[in-house]
Amino acid sequence: MSKGVKTTAIIVVSAMCAATAMPTMADDEITRESVEPVDTVFDDVQLEQLAQDKATGIEVHFSDAKGNISSSADASCTFSYEGDKLVKRVSTGVGKDVAPYVYYKYDKDGNVIEIDYRLTESSDPCESYEYEYTGDELTKEYHSYFDPEESPEIEAWIHSYDGDGNRKETKRYETDSKEKVGEEKYLISTTTYTYDKDGNETREEETFTEDGSVAVTAYAYDKDGNQISAIAEDDFKETDTYDKDGDPLTENWYEYNEDTKDFQLAKVYEYTYDSKGRYSSALLRTSKDGKTLTTVGRFDVTYPKENGSAFADVSADKYYADAVVWAVKNNITKGTSATTFSPNAPCTRGQIVTFLYKNAGSPDVSNVTVPFKDVKPGAYYENAVKWAVSSKITSGVTATSFAPNATCTRGQIVTFLYKAVPHFDNAPVSTNFADVSMTAYYATPVGWALLKNITGGTTKTTFSPNAPCTRAQAVTFLYKANQ
Length: 483
Hints:
Blueprint: H1 44-53, E1 60-62, E2 68-71, E3 76-82, E4 85-92, E5 101-106, E6 112-118, E7 127-134, E8 137-145, E9 153-161, E10 167-175, E11 187-195, E12 201-208, E13 214-221, E14 227-232, E15 236-242, E16 248-257, E17 262-273, E18 279-286, E19 294-300, H2 321-329, H3 349-359, H4 382-390, H5 410-420, H6 443-451, H7 471-481
Antiparallel strand pairs: 1-2, 2-3, 3-4, 4-5, 5-6, 6-7, 7-8, 8-9, 9-10, 10-11, 11-12, 12-13, 13-14, 14-15, 15-16, 16-17, 17-18, 18-19
């Protein structure tokens, strides 16, 4: 699990076309296997209602990125892809106020630029999200509601960044037309951000245009960079605890009590993990008096059992054991021989693009040509190189050579993975790694990989981007990216 990343539960559903939108999520890494991007989850109120309806608990079953998701909570989804990109999600068994058809659009760099929610397959959107980027930075967000009998309602957020890639300012607008966004009379508020020396956000100040009032939210972190508290004056308070691996154990939510002029405990999320460190359950407790907690909902995750590795050099206690089993099961690799995987051998450029190509479903590249003299017809990596180059995941080392047998570094492989795997996160993410400069080509991929718990680095303060990446590390990165 990603350090410092909230994992508020729970089950994937379609967005509601109603007055209040469901929360946009960056990552629900614990409750799906490989579907990206997923943009909505049940919030607290819906979890409480679900708990009342399903008092015996919830059992959820998930398939891979090319199959279906189904759950006993009556939300069944099918997914459609173009290449490795999710372009449509259709839900059945959902409520009448939920839009069952969701469509995704991407720019040439693979960034999600639009998500439309429709009540029928051919109807106009009833709700949409739009995203604009400048380089790798998300600079504009639009959230639109459409009612045939009323003017559109549009919320917009315009972001600016400092030289380190940290968000510096956000201007929020509400209007009935995108063309009016930016006009002062539609400006609702302006938010500024403050960071500590490690790049952790410590303070948000939102100033409201109408009356000049200021809402302040302050954040605090432990020595490992995990967020341990968030406090908004006269509004809410949250405190969090983590285990030794940086995984969340509890989230304590407080509401401001006007009578006592203090914060009162309102709800608690408790998380547990299995013997492999995987998320296994979330328990929601609520309190009416700030003292007595009542359990109102529980969410449990069960993972499919996997057979052990057939390779003599991959023992079950190794960190990469599950990743190797997964890679073989999904035909990502067959090992270096019938009985060996060679986990400590360096991963070559030919091997990593082949892993990624097979993970993408081995798309047809019969019409693709490459100018590389060292990529011979019939080589095991021939189609993978064609795909990787045509997909802009990597290029040759020169105009006529690919160097398929050259060793890949950790920085290179994380960058390949970042470009190959669909994701929602595109703005640079700060890391605590002393050897990862924010100007390095691999800075954003490393930050993304850290955020998604794909890697934790070689130590708490180093990533070793220039070190050779082993075959074990490569398949582990890919395995975790698919979780």
